[in-house]
Amino acid sequence: MSDRLFSLEGKHAVVTGAGRGLGADIAALLARSGAHVYLLSKDAAELDVVAERIHRNGGACTPVTCDLLKDDQLERAFGELPRLDILVNNAGTNIPARLADVTTSDLEFVIGLNIRATFLATRAAVRKMLESDAADDRAIISISSQMGHVGAPERSVYCMTKHAMEGLTKALAVELAPRIRVNTVAPTFVDTPMTQPFFENEQFRDWVFDRIPMGRLLSGEQVAAAVLYLASPAAAMITGTSLRIDGGWTAQ
C-alpha cells in the first residue's frame, strides 16, 4: 500500500528549469518514481546531462529545449505533449538589490520568469490536462520560497513574485478542483553550487543561520522529496497549500 501511495507509474510530468540544480534533482526523483519526465530548459547541453543521469538509473525522460520567456516556444512545448498529469514550475530567478537600486530591466526579467512564465506554463499545462476526460489525479506544483510568506531586505522583487505565486496557487486550487490539485513547495536556502559563494560572506551566512532554528540548509534531494509527495496519491486531498520546508524560518 505505502509503495503505491508514492508511485507515479504511468504519469507524464513536465519540470521547467530542469537543466541543473533543483530542477535536475526533482526530475530525477520523479523519473525514479515511475513518471515519464519532460525536461524543459533553454540549454540543450545541460538537458542532455540530466537525461543521461535519468536513463542511467532506469528512468524515462524526454529533453525539450524551450525558452520560457518566448511565448511561441512555450506554447509549442506543451502543445506537442502526448498527455500531461504533473507540472512542476521550477524555473525562476533572483537578482538581490535594495529597492532604490533595482533597475527596470532586472525588474522586468525577474517578473517575466517568476510570474509571467509561471502563469503561461500553468495555463498551457491546464489546457493539456483538460484535453483528457480521465479521472486520474493531476497536480501542479510550483517552487515558491519562504520569501513567499515573509519579507527580507534586498529582495523586494523576489518576495513580490513569490507572494504572487502563492496567490495564484490559492486561486487555481479553488478553480480547478476537483480535477487538478495546485500547491507550492516553499524552501529555505538550498545548499547548491549556485548558493555556496553567497555563504562565503560571513555577514550573509550569519543572517541566514540566525533565522533557521534547525540550523542547517536544505539539500536539493529534500526539496525533490517534497515535490514527489505533493505529486503523488499520498497527497490526494491536498490543494491550495504551501509546503514550507524552511527549518522553522517562517514559524517565528
Automatic annotation (TrEMBL):
Source organism superkingdom = Bacteria
Example GO biological process: monocarboxylic acid metabolic process
**Coiled coil residues, start to end:** none
UniProt-listed InterPro entries: NAD(P)-bd_dom_sf, Sc_DH/Rdtase_CS, SDR, SDR_fam
Q: Name one Pfam family in it.
A: adh_short_C2
Q: Which family does it belong to?
A: Belongs to the short-chain dehydrogenases/reductases (SDR) family.
* Protein known as: Short chain dehydrogenase
Organism of provenance: Caballeronia catudaia
Q: What is the lineage of its organism?
A: Bacteria, Pseudomonadati, Pseudomonadota, Betaproteobacteria, Burkholderiales
